[in-house]
Amino acid sequence: MTSKQFKKILIIRLSSLGDVLLATPLLNAIKREYGLCSIDFVVRNEYADAIRLNPNVEQVFLYSRDKEEITAIKKKIKSIGYDLIIDLQNNPRSRALTSGMNVKVVRFYKNSLAKFLLVKFKINRLKAAPSIPERYAATAEIQLNNDDKVELFIPGQTGGNDKNSGKKLIGLCPGARHFTKRWSKEYFIELGKTLIENSYDVCLLGGKDDTLLCEEIAAKIPGAMNFATDNDLYKLAFNMKRCSAVVCNDSGLMHIACGLKIPVVAIFGSTVKEFGFFPYKSKSSVLENNSLFCRPCSHIGRRSCPKKHFKCMNDITPVKVYKTLNDLICL
Questions:
Q1: In 146-282, which ranges are continuous DSSP H helix?
Q2: Residue 175 sits in the same domain as residue 324
């Protein structure tokens, strides 16, 4: 591939929040590789703020499941005349957007068989698998370098954290879409109390689905602030930027923290780092119980622990998380 070949590039990554953010290192690499090219991005409306203000992106097309809107987007894509389409979603919806077009299309390889073998039979062919951002880049036949990191741009972005109280603010992010990816509410409460007792400030961070959980945890931690939002990504990110570090699950908020350059302690339960979704090129520590043969039990998470003991999360104690967090902040 040469810079003369690709002047107009379209990237398709419809969902979800973490996956969209993990595509941002590729944007920077494309600009470096192809110079004065323009990059457009197709994404579902609810995740558009993750990419909307990225300076490497010219246009953002909002994808919905409305047939008329899909047809309109497809017509627009065809009329622009892209030189290259990078389909990082690679599902029937993204394929439908590009069907019948006379344009070079490259698609993300999902490693579905390797994930199936690891989850079902614990045959691990992913030990040396690269991270998701590196695999996205490989799809486009581009290599990332140390400057290509996860980035989230927000309105009025500032470089520093708010430390008006004189204490370090720690963000607790208890939410995740699936139960087996969530550290327990009781453990978050215990950790929060320990942080307060050791002269930290504590805030709760999450989206609409996390509102009740954040309220319950904040109510049990003296002095904790609840910054859960109604899925307002910019407001959530603004409050997260005030934090000296965050503690979270394997969730989209982990990638938000990476995009904002906030140190993160990530707690992995039913999922494992081999799937490629660990904190990318960020100051971070990942805690997971590697003594269990039953991990991973899913590559996306489950409604309940199939073994009923939930040791993947229950054996990671608040004491261990606090020590890891303290060590990370002091590095």
A1: 185-197, 211-220, 233-240, 252-259
A2: yes
Domain count along the chain? 2
Which phi and psi angles does 245 have, rounded to 5°?
-165, 160
**pLDDT tens readout for residues 68-84:** 999 999 999 999 999 99
**Residue 311 CB-half CA count within 13 A:** 10
Q: What is the pLDDT of residue 157?
A: 62
pLDDT at 5: 74
Using N-to-C axis directions, what is the helix angle for 252-259 and 233-240, rounded to 10°? 60
Instruction: Examine residue 154 and state whether it is found in any structural domain, yes or no.
Output: no
d(CA 244, CA 164): 12
- Residue 147 above 50 pLDDT? yes
**Burial tier of 311 (Cβ tally within 10 Å: 0-12, 13-18, 19+):** middle
| Domain interval for residue 258 | 169-330
Do 313 and 267 form a contact (C-beta atoms < 8 A)? Answer: yes
Does 135 share its domain with 174? Answer: no
Question: CB atoms < 10 A from the CB of 309, how many?
Answer: 11
Both 95 and 211 in one domain: the answer is no
Over the stretch 284-326, which tens digit does the pLDDT of each residue have? 999 999 999 999 999 999 999 999 999 999 999 999 999 999 9
Per the rule left: phi > 0, alpha: psi between -120 and 50, beta: everything else, 228 is beta
Contact 218, 209 (CB under 8 A): no
Across the beta sheet with 8-12, the strand order is 59-63, 38-44, 8-12, 84-87, 104-107
Distance CA 134, CA 149 (A): 11
Strands, sheet with 169-173, edge to edge from the N-terminal-most edge strand: 225-226, 201-204, 169-173, 245-249, 264-268, 284-288
Give yes or no: residues 190 and 124 share one domain: no
**152 occurs within a structural domain:** no
For residue 322, what are the contacts with CB-CB under 8 A and spacing of at least 6?
191, 194, 195, 198
Of the residues 139, 161, 190, the one at which a domain ends: 139
Q: What does the pLDDT read at residue 165?
A: 61
